[in-house]
């Protein structure tokens, strides 16, 4: 049956009774039926926050170095195609549909063995006993790898969807693993302590492979799991790190300003000095950039990368919705921060910006998140909270969101709106030229803000 991409995505949502169902058995079974055996190096990236930034930097640098790069990330903001990129271009709807069709045939045991002798043992035609109820994410992960194999990519970057140990991307072997950070999030699935969550994220480590941890504050579970399986653990501040170049008093003002925009990376492998700051804004981006460079160090024999490519990749990297500051007045900031760890980073980034008038927060969150923790982290930076309902599963109604803001003791005024678009329009109407509007709380919040402003993903 011919399906459009929209039809396919609607269909994928119906295959499994749960939106999230961790475990590798289902995806491993269909992977085997498809005979998916990537012949290219893979970097797997997990972590509570920062993994999207690390994936984007790796993709940008490796692309600048001339490699054909496949990058699989989630969730998307505006279009599903954002999740699968080859050569920094989104996969077309036609090739995604073709990949989905291949996965569906294998999922239902409908592989024509005459076309591929390696797929022995599968029935031709529909057999209910052979059907595997894949989740939306599992189905998409297999389709992404199918696309990468079809395009003969030279390196693939896979972002973990949730946790790590039982996440669908973990069914594929890799040459290097990165865990960017560990903090409290997704407690219903990963545990309610930092150590329990760290154990799940360390599940992507592999024996004999480099395992990178991109934060100086490392949970014990990261180290113990790396040691247990024999992974080569590299931690920020030990095996690799960075320093921001200090200003030289003898330089002119113009030279001092240029000097201030550079940083140095060092590791046990070597050093890369006088690097430009990543185009992604935010206080933690040097942590993320250092983790990305450490991954490149780990794969330097397979994928050598020049200094020119590193510099160009850092300057050209783009990732909408991560402390993205839109041009114009009043200033609009988009950030997908949806847990207290990310909210603290956003608060620091807002505090580091030049002084402004009022800050209007267009704010919506999913109901299973730590809304009070996010509110308290950003309370000192927000003058007016525009609490909006969110049209997504697990989305919280605006009245309930407002109640939770009041319970958290926020000092700013709180108003309610049925939709994010309504809140964006009101904030744009009220904000003066010297004010700013910060839209945050979830990917959905940022996506709805982008739609309200007529923005595209780029």
Describe this structure in words.
The chain contains 16 helices and 17 strands. With 458 residues, the protein is an alpha/beta fold. The chain folds into 2 domains: 312 residues, UDP-N-acetylmuramoyl-L-alanine:D-glutamate ligase; 129 residues, Mur ligase, C-terminal domain (Protein-Tyrosine Phosphatase, Chain A), CATH 3.90.190.20. The strands form 3 sheets. An 8-stranded mixed beta sheet has the order 4-3-2-5-1-6-7-8, with helices on both faces. α13 links the parallel β14 and β15. About 6% of the residues have low confidence.
How is this fold's topology laid out?
Elements: H1 5-12, H2 25-34, E1 42-46, H3 51-64, E2 69-72, E3 84-86, E4 89-90, H4 93-107, H5 136-150, E5 155-159, E6 176-179, H6 187-190, H7 194-201, E7 210-213, H8 220-229, E8 232-235, E9 240-244, H9 253-260, E10 262-267, E11 271-276, H10 285-298, H11 307-316, E12 324-326, E13 331-334, H12 340-352, E14 359-363, H13 371-378, E15 384-388, H14 398-407, E16 413-417, H15 420-430, E17 436-440, H16 443-452
Parallel strand pairs: 1-5, 1-6, 2-5, 6-7, 7-8, 13-17, 14-15, 14-17, 15-16
Antiparallel strand pairs: 2-3, 3-4, 9-10, 10-11, 12-13
């Amino acid at each position: 049956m011919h399906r459009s991409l929209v039809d396919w995505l609607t269909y994928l949502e119906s295959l499994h009774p749960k939106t999230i169902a961790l475990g590798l058995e289902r995806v491993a079974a269909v992977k085997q039926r498809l005979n998916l055996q990537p012949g290219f190096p893979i970097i797997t990236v997990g972590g509570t926050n920062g993994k999207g930034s690390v994936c984007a930097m790796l993709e940008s640098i490796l692309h600048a170095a001339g490699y054909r790069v496949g990058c699989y990330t989630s969730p998307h903001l505006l279009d599903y195609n954002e999740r699968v990129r080859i050569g920094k271009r989104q996969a077309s709807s036609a090739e995604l549909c073709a990949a989905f069709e291949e996965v569906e045939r294998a999922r239902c045991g409908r592989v024509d063995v005459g076309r591929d002798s390696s797929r022995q043992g599968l029935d031709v035609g529909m057999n209910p006993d052979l059907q595997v109820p894949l989740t939306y994410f599992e189905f998409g992960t297999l389709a992404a790898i199918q696309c990468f194999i079809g395009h003969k990519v030279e390196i693939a970057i896979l972002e973990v969807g949730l946790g790590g140990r039982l996440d669908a991307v973990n069914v594929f072997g890799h040459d290097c693993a990165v865990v960017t950070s560990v903090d409290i999030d997704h407690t219903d699935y990963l545990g309610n302590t930092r150590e329990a969550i760290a154990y799940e994220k360390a599940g992507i480590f592999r024996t004999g492979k480099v395992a990178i941890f991109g934060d100086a504050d490392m949970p014990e579970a990261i180290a113990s799991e790396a040691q247990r399986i024999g992974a080569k653990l590299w931690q920020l501040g030990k095996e690799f790190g960075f320093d921001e170049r200090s200003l030289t008093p003898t330089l002119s003002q113009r030279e001092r300003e240029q000097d201030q925009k550079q940083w140095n990376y060092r590791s046990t492998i070597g050093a890369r000095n006088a690097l430009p700051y990543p185009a992604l804004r935010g206080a933690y981006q040097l942590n993320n950039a250092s983790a990305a460079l450490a991954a490149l160090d780990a794969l330097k024999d397979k994928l050598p990368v020049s200094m020119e490519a590193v510099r160009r990749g850092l300057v050209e990297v783009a990732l909408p919705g991560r402390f993205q500051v839109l041009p114009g007045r009043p200033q609009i900031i988009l950030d997908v921060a949806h847990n207290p760890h990310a909210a603290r980073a956003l608060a620091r980034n807002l505090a580091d910006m030049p002084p402004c008038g009022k800050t209007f927060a267009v704010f919506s969150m999913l109901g299973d998140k730590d809304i009070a923790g996010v509110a308290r982290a950003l309370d000192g930076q927000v003058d007016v909270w525009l609490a909006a309902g969110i049209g997504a599963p697990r989305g919280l109604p605006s009245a309930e969101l407002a109640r939770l803001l009041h319970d958290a003791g926020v000092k700013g005024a709180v108003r309610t709106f049925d939709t994010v678009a309504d809140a964006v329009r009101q904030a744009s109407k009220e904000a003066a030229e010297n004010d700013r509007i910060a839209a945050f709380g979830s990917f959905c919040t940022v996506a709805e803000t982008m739609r309200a402003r007529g923005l595209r993903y780029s």
